[in-house]
């Protein structure tokens, strides 16, 4: 049986971060006494994100993670199972972890926000590059390349 160890390690690190983000949301819910939703203010104007309620910031950190990490890990695992070069896999895994740390640290900061913008850029590039590698791997498996 082939075990995708790079994906396993990456998912394990990100799983710990996800638990921390989840616990942060729970803690903010307790402090704000809001059991569902984020309170009366559910938006924050562009450039005013640092003024958003702490619960809203915690919920968005958690939500953003949940939106992007599953697809990223699936791509990473499939590339690993397709015997993609280990250096490529480690680069993609490193980019994924770095992007998540940057976005987590960046959400809720005042603009200009290099952490948030940089983290999003790295996340998008990681997914894009993984997709290109996946398509090339598929084309090779079909004898097209």
Strand content: under 5%
CATH homologous superfamily identity: Membrane associated eicosanoid/glutathione metabolism-like domain
Question: How much helicity do the residues have?
Answer: over 70%
- The CATH architecture can be given as Up-down Bundle
Average pLDDT level: 95
Described by strand count, sense and barrel closure, the largest sheet is: none
Structural shape? elongated
What is the CATH class designation? Mainly Alpha
The number of E-state strands comes to: 0
Q: How many domains make up the coordinates? A: 1
The number of helices is: 4
Query: Which structural category fits the helices and strands?
Result: mainly alpha
Q: Predict the CATH topology.
A: Four Helix Bundle (Hemerythrin (Met), subunit A)
The oligomerization state is single chain
Low-pLDDT parts are none
Terminal CA distance reads: 28 Å
Q: What gyration radius follows from the Cα positions, in whole Å?
A: 18 Å
């Amino acid at each position: 049986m082939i075990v995708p160890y790079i994906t396993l390690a990456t998912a394990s690190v990100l799983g710990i971060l996800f638990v921390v983000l989840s616990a942060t949301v729970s803690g903010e819910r307790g402090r704000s006494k809001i059991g569902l939703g984020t309170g009366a203010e559910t938006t924050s104007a562009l450039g005013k994100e640092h003024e958003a309620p702490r619960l809203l910031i915690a919920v968005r950190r958690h939500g953003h993670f949940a939106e992007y990490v599953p697809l990223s890990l699936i791509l990473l695992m499939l590339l690993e199972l397709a015997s993609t070069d280990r250096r490529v896999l480690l680069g993609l895994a490193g980019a994924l972890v770095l992007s998540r740390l940057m976005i987590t640290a960046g959400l809720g900061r005042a603009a200009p926000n290099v952490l948030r913008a940089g983290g999003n850029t790295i996340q998008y590039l990681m997914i894009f590059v993984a997709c290109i590698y996946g398509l090339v791997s598929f084309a090779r498996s079909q004898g097209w390349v």
